[in-house]
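Dear U.,

For the methods section draft, I wanted the exact inputs and outputs in one place so we can describe them consistently. I've listed the two proteins in the order they'll appear in the manuscript figures. Please don't edit the C-alpha coordinate lines directly; just add comments below if something needs changing.

First protein:
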Amino acid sequence: MASSLEKLQKNYDVEIHWRSFMLRPPGSPPIPPEYRARIEASHTQLEKMAREQYGLELHPGPFGIDSRPALIAAKYAESQGKGNAFHAAGMHAYWQEGRSIDDPEVLREIAASVGLETEHFAATNPEYSAEVDEDMAEANAYGLQAVPALIFAEKYLLSGAQPYELLVQVVEKLQKEGV
Protein backbone atom coordinates (compact mmCIF):
# COMPACT_ATOMS: atom_id res chain seq x y z
CA MET A 1 0.00 0.00 0.00
CA ALA A 2 1.34 3.44 -0.91
CA SER A 3 2.11 6.20 1.57
CA SER A 4 0.16 9.46 1.40
CA LEU A 5 3.06 11.12 -0.42
CA GLU A 6 3.39 8.28 -2.93
CA LYS A 7 -0.35 8.39 -3.56
CA LEU A 8 -0.24 12.18 -3.94
CA GLN A 9 2.63 11.92 -6.41
CA LYS A 10 0.77 9.29 -8.41
CA ASN A 11 -2.50 11.25 -8.57
CA TYR A 12 -1.15 14.79 -8.96
CA ASP A 13 1.72 16.44 -10.79
CA VAL A 14 3.89 17.04 -7.71
CA GLU A 15 7.59 16.66 -7.13
CA ILE A 16 8.94 15.63 -3.76
CA HIS A 17 12.25 17.08 -2.64
CA TRP A 18 13.59 15.49 0.53
CA ARG A 19 15.50 17.76 2.88
CA SER A 20 17.76 16.83 5.75
CA PHE A 21 16.51 17.34 9.27
CA MET A 22 17.63 16.00 12.61
CA LEU A 23 15.28 16.08 15.56
CA ARG A 24 18.19 15.68 17.94
CA PRO A 25 21.44 16.88 16.40
CA PRO A 26 24.72 15.97 18.10
CA GLY A 27 25.22 18.03 21.22
CA SER A 28 21.52 18.10 22.10
CA PRO A 29 20.80 17.68 25.80
CA PRO A 30 19.68 14.23 26.93
CA ILE A 31 16.00 13.42 26.47
CA PRO A 32 14.21 13.74 29.82
CA PRO A 33 12.92 10.34 30.98
CA GLU A 34 9.28 11.49 31.07
CA TYR A 35 9.48 12.74 27.46
CA ARG A 36 11.09 9.50 26.30
CA ALA A 37 8.31 7.58 28.06
CA ARG A 38 5.69 9.62 26.16
CA ILE A 39 7.46 8.87 22.88
CA GLU A 40 7.59 5.16 23.64
CA ALA A 41 3.94 5.18 24.74
CA SER A 42 2.94 6.67 21.37
CA HIS A 43 4.47 3.73 19.46
CA THR A 44 1.33 1.63 19.83
CA GLN A 45 -0.79 4.32 18.14
CA LEU A 46 1.84 4.84 15.41
CA GLU A 47 1.98 1.10 14.72
CA LYS A 48 -1.82 0.92 14.57
CA MET A 49 -2.01 3.84 12.13
CA ALA A 50 0.71 2.33 9.90
CA ARG A 51 -1.10 -1.00 9.83
CA GLU A 52 -4.59 0.43 9.20
CA GLN A 53 -3.75 3.22 6.76
CA TYR A 54 -0.78 1.78 4.89
CA GLY A 55 -0.80 -1.96 5.52
CA LEU A 56 2.65 -1.74 7.14
CA GLU A 57 3.97 -3.59 10.13
CA LEU A 58 6.50 -1.43 11.94
CA HIS A 59 9.62 -2.82 13.56
CA PRO A 60 11.64 0.38 14.08
CA GLY A 61 15.38 0.54 14.43
CA PRO A 62 17.17 1.77 17.52
CA PHE A 63 15.96 4.96 19.17
CA GLY A 64 18.28 7.94 19.44
CA ILE A 65 20.78 7.10 16.71
CA ASP A 66 22.78 9.73 14.82
CA SER A 67 20.96 10.01 11.49
CA ARG A 68 23.57 12.36 9.97
CA PRO A 69 25.45 9.57 8.11
CA ALA A 70 22.17 8.51 6.46
CA LEU A 71 21.40 12.12 5.54
CA ILE A 72 24.83 12.53 3.95
CA ALA A 73 24.41 9.23 2.11
CA ALA A 74 21.01 10.43 0.84
CA LYS A 75 22.66 13.55 -0.61
CA TYR A 76 25.14 11.31 -2.43
CA ALA A 77 22.24 9.22 -3.72
CA GLU A 78 20.47 12.38 -4.95
CA SER A 79 23.62 13.41 -6.82
CA GLN A 80 23.48 10.06 -8.63
CA GLY A 81 19.77 10.33 -9.48
CA LYS A 82 18.80 7.74 -6.87
CA GLY A 83 17.61 10.00 -4.03
CA ASN A 84 13.99 8.85 -3.85
CA ALA A 85 14.94 5.18 -4.13
CA PHE A 86 17.60 5.54 -1.42
CA HIS A 87 15.19 7.40 0.85
CA ALA A 88 12.53 4.70 0.44
CA ALA A 89 15.04 1.90 1.02
CA GLY A 90 16.47 3.67 4.08
CA MET A 91 13.02 4.22 5.57
CA HIS A 92 12.15 0.57 4.95
CA ALA A 93 15.42 -0.59 6.53
CA TYR A 94 14.84 1.51 9.65
CA TRP A 95 11.07 1.30 10.14
CA GLN A 96 10.32 -2.20 8.94
CA GLU A 97 13.56 -4.12 9.30
CA GLY A 98 14.72 -2.50 12.54
CA ARG A 99 18.14 -1.70 11.11
CA SER A 100 20.44 0.99 12.45
CA ILE A 101 20.86 3.54 9.67
CA ASP A 102 23.85 5.12 11.39
CA ASP A 103 25.89 1.98 10.64
CA PRO A 104 28.14 2.55 7.58
CA GLU A 105 27.76 -1.08 6.49
CA VAL A 106 23.95 -0.85 6.59
CA LEU A 107 24.12 2.37 4.54
CA ARG A 108 26.43 0.67 2.05
CA GLU A 109 23.95 -2.21 1.70
CA ILE A 110 21.07 0.22 1.18
CA ALA A 111 23.12 2.07 -1.45
CA ALA A 112 23.90 -1.17 -3.28
CA SER A 113 20.23 -2.21 -3.15
CA VAL A 114 19.25 0.87 -5.19
CA GLY A 115 22.07 0.50 -7.70
CA LEU A 116 24.61 2.94 -6.29
CA GLU A 117 28.35 2.39 -6.63
CA THR A 118 29.61 1.42 -3.19
CA GLU A 119 33.34 0.95 -3.75
CA HIS A 120 34.04 4.58 -2.82
CA PHE A 121 30.80 5.11 -0.94
CA ALA A 122 31.24 7.09 2.26
CA ALA A 123 28.64 8.69 4.45
CA THR A 124 31.11 11.35 5.56
CA ASN A 125 31.77 13.20 2.28
CA PRO A 126 32.37 16.91 3.08
CA GLU A 127 30.49 18.11 -0.04
CA TYR A 128 27.33 16.24 0.91
CA SER A 129 27.82 17.07 4.58
CA ALA A 130 27.70 20.77 3.62
CA GLU A 131 24.41 20.15 1.78
CA VAL A 132 22.99 18.57 4.93
CA ASP A 133 24.08 21.65 6.90
CA GLU A 134 22.34 23.91 4.35
CA ASP A 135 19.11 21.93 4.72
CA MET A 136 19.36 22.12 8.51
CA ALA A 137 19.86 25.89 8.34
CA GLU A 138 16.78 26.18 6.11
CA ALA A 139 14.75 24.09 8.58
CA ASN A 140 15.89 26.37 11.40
CA ALA A 141 14.91 29.43 9.36
CA TYR A 142 11.42 27.94 8.94
CA GLY A 143 11.32 27.20 12.67
CA LEU A 144 10.73 23.48 12.08
CA GLN A 145 10.80 21.32 15.19
CA ALA A 146 8.93 18.20 14.12
CA VAL A 147 8.87 15.56 11.41
CA PRO A 148 7.41 15.13 9.00
CA ALA A 149 7.18 18.73 7.89
CA LEU A 150 5.78 19.30 4.42
CA ILE A 151 6.30 22.61 2.70
CA PHE A 152 4.20 23.16 -0.41
CA ALA A 153 5.49 25.66 -3.00
CA GLU A 154 7.39 27.47 -0.24
CA LYS A 155 3.98 28.76 0.80
CA TYR A 156 2.16 26.26 3.02
CA LEU A 157 3.55 24.23 5.90
CA LEU A 158 1.96 21.07 7.25
CA SER A 159 3.66 19.77 10.35
CA GLY A 160 3.28 16.24 11.62
CA ALA A 161 1.64 13.25 9.97
CA GLN A 162 -1.39 14.45 8.01
CA PRO A 163 -4.13 12.51 6.24
CA TYR A 164 -3.98 12.15 2.48
CA GLU A 165 -7.17 14.20 2.09
CA LEU A 166 -5.51 17.25 3.65
CA LEU A 167 -2.52 16.94 1.31
CA VAL A 168 -4.95 16.86 -1.62
CA GLN A 169 -6.67 20.02 -0.34
CA VAL A 170 -3.35 21.88 -0.26
CA VAL A 171 -2.34 20.72 -3.75
CA GLU A 172 -5.73 21.62 -5.19
CA LYS A 173 -5.61 25.04 -3.51
CA LEU A 174 -2.18 25.67 -5.07
CA GLN A 175 -3.48 24.56 -8.46
CA LYS A 176 -6.38 27.05 -8.17
CA GLU A 177 -3.87 29.74 -7.26
CA GLY A 178 -1.87 28.89 -10.37
CA VAL A 179 1.21 27.82 -8.42
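Second protein (the one for the lower panel):
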Amino acid sequence: MLRRAPESPTRGRKPSLVRVAPAGFGTGVLTGFFGVGGGFVIVPALVLLLGLPLTLAIGTSLLVIALTSGAALAAHLASGSIDWIIASTFTGAAIAGALAGRRLGAIINPRRLGRLFALILVAIAVVLIAKNVPARL
Protein backbone atom coordinates (compact mmCIF):
# COMPACT_ATOMS: atom_id res chain seq x y z
CA MET A 1 0.00 0.00 0.00
CA LEU A 2 3.05 2.29 0.17
CA ARG A 3 3.31 2.35 -3.56
CA ARG A 4 0.45 2.58 -6.00
CA ALA A 5 -1.74 -0.47 -5.62
CA PRO A 6 -1.54 -2.88 -8.57
CA GLU A 7 -4.60 -3.11 -10.74
CA SER A 8 -6.86 -5.76 -9.35
CA PRO A 9 -9.08 -7.93 -11.52
CA THR A 10 -11.97 -6.95 -9.22
CA ARG A 11 -11.35 -3.18 -9.25
CA GLY A 12 -14.55 -1.39 -10.21
CA ARG A 13 -16.82 -4.41 -9.75
CA LYS A 14 -17.91 -6.62 -6.91
CA PRO A 15 -15.43 -9.36 -6.01
CA SER A 16 -16.79 -12.89 -6.21
CA LEU A 17 -17.52 -14.85 -3.06
CA VAL A 18 -14.92 -17.36 -4.25
CA ARG A 19 -12.27 -14.66 -3.61
CA VAL A 20 -13.92 -13.02 -0.59
CA ALA A 21 -14.24 -16.17 1.56
CA PRO A 22 -10.54 -17.19 1.39
CA ALA A 23 -9.44 -13.59 1.98
CA GLY A 24 -11.73 -13.41 5.01
CA PHE A 25 -10.52 -16.75 6.32
CA GLY A 26 -6.88 -15.75 5.85
CA THR A 27 -7.33 -12.46 7.69
CA GLY A 28 -9.15 -14.30 10.46
CA VAL A 29 -6.27 -16.74 10.84
CA LEU A 30 -3.73 -13.90 10.92
CA THR A 31 -5.80 -11.92 13.39
CA GLY A 32 -6.34 -14.92 15.66
CA PHE A 33 -2.78 -16.24 15.43
CA PHE A 34 -0.88 -12.97 15.83
CA GLY A 35 -3.46 -11.20 17.96
CA VAL A 36 -3.19 -8.09 15.80
CA GLY A 37 -5.99 -5.57 15.50
CA GLY A 38 -8.44 -6.70 12.85
CA GLY A 39 -8.44 -3.45 10.87
CA PHE A 40 -4.71 -3.64 10.36
CA VAL A 41 -5.19 -6.90 8.50
CA ILE A 42 -8.67 -6.49 7.06
CA VAL A 43 -8.19 -3.14 5.32
CA PRO A 44 -5.08 -4.17 3.32
CA ALA A 45 -6.76 -7.46 2.39
CA LEU A 46 -9.85 -5.67 1.12
CA VAL A 47 -7.79 -3.13 -0.82
CA LEU A 48 -4.99 -5.30 -2.18
CA LEU A 49 -6.66 -8.69 -2.57
CA LEU A 50 -10.21 -7.68 -3.42
CA GLY A 51 -9.65 -4.29 -5.07
CA LEU A 52 -12.00 -2.23 -2.91
CA PRO A 53 -11.41 1.53 -2.73
CA LEU A 54 -9.83 2.54 0.59
CA THR A 55 -12.88 4.36 1.94
CA LEU A 56 -15.15 1.38 1.20
CA ALA A 57 -12.57 -0.99 2.71
CA ILE A 58 -12.47 1.06 5.92
CA GLY A 59 -16.25 1.02 6.31
CA THR A 60 -16.43 -2.68 5.50
CA SER A 61 -13.64 -3.40 7.97
CA LEU A 62 -15.45 -1.51 10.71
CA LEU A 63 -18.61 -3.56 10.16
CA VAL A 64 -16.65 -6.83 10.26
CA ILE A 65 -14.84 -5.75 13.43
CA ALA A 66 -18.10 -4.68 15.09
CA LEU A 67 -19.74 -8.04 14.36
CA THR A 68 -16.75 -10.11 15.48
CA SER A 69 -16.33 -7.90 18.55
CA GLY A 70 -19.97 -8.49 19.44
CA ALA A 71 -19.45 -12.25 19.26
CA ALA A 72 -16.28 -12.00 21.37
CA LEU A 73 -18.08 -9.80 23.90
CA ALA A 74 -20.87 -12.34 24.23
CA ALA A 75 -18.31 -15.08 24.87
CA HIS A 76 -16.50 -13.02 27.50
CA LEU A 77 -19.74 -12.06 29.22
CA ALA A 78 -20.65 -15.73 29.43
CA SER A 79 -17.31 -16.96 30.73
CA GLY A 80 -15.26 -14.08 32.07
CA SER A 81 -15.35 -10.70 33.64
CA ILE A 82 -15.05 -7.22 32.24
CA ASP A 83 -13.78 -4.09 33.99
CA TRP A 84 -16.77 -1.92 33.12
CA ILE A 85 -15.15 1.37 34.15
CA ILE A 86 -12.16 0.81 31.87
CA ALA A 87 -14.35 -0.60 29.08
CA SER A 88 -16.83 2.29 29.13
CA THR A 89 -14.14 4.98 29.42
CA PHE A 90 -12.09 3.42 26.62
CA THR A 91 -15.22 2.99 24.46
CA GLY A 92 -16.24 6.63 24.93
CA ALA A 93 -12.74 7.85 24.06
CA ALA A 94 -12.58 5.50 21.07
CA ILE A 95 -15.91 6.78 19.75
CA ALA A 96 -14.71 10.38 20.10
CA GLY A 97 -11.48 9.43 18.32
CA ALA A 98 -13.38 7.67 15.55
CA LEU A 99 -15.53 10.75 14.94
CA ALA A 100 -12.46 13.00 14.89
CA GLY A 101 -10.63 10.54 12.62
CA ARG A 102 -13.57 10.46 10.21
CA ARG A 103 -13.52 14.24 9.91
CA LEU A 104 -9.76 14.24 9.40
CA GLY A 105 -10.03 11.42 6.85
CA ALA A 106 -12.56 13.41 4.85
CA ILE A 107 -10.03 16.18 4.18
CA ILE A 108 -7.05 13.96 3.32
CA ASN A 109 -6.55 12.69 -0.22
CA PRO A 110 -7.42 8.95 -0.33
CA ARG A 111 -4.08 8.08 -1.95
CA ARG A 112 -2.19 9.88 0.83
CA LEU A 113 -4.46 8.28 3.41
CA GLY A 114 -3.53 4.85 2.02
CA ARG A 115 0.17 5.67 2.18
CA LEU A 116 -0.18 7.00 5.73
CA PHE A 117 -1.96 3.80 6.73
CA ALA A 118 0.81 1.71 5.16
CA LEU A 119 3.50 3.71 6.97
CA ILE A 120 1.71 3.19 10.28
CA LEU A 121 1.55 -0.56 9.56
CA VAL A 122 5.28 -0.63 8.85
CA ALA A 123 6.06 1.34 12.02
CA ILE A 124 3.94 -1.01 14.15
CA ALA A 125 5.62 -4.04 12.56
CA VAL A 126 9.08 -2.63 13.30
CA VAL A 127 8.17 -1.91 16.92
CA LEU A 128 6.66 -5.38 17.42
CA ILE A 129 9.68 -7.08 15.87
CA ALA A 130 12.08 -5.01 17.97
CA LYS A 131 10.18 -5.88 21.14
CA ASN A 132 9.78 -9.57 20.40
CA VAL A 133 13.05 -10.62 18.75
CA PRO A 134 15.12 -10.27 21.95
CA ALA A 135 12.63 -12.51 23.76
CA ARG A 136 13.26 -15.26 21.18
CA LEU A 137 17.06 -15.10 21.38
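Candidate sentences for the figure legend, describing the second protein: The radius of gyration is 17 Å. The mean pLDDT is 81.

Thanks,
Y.
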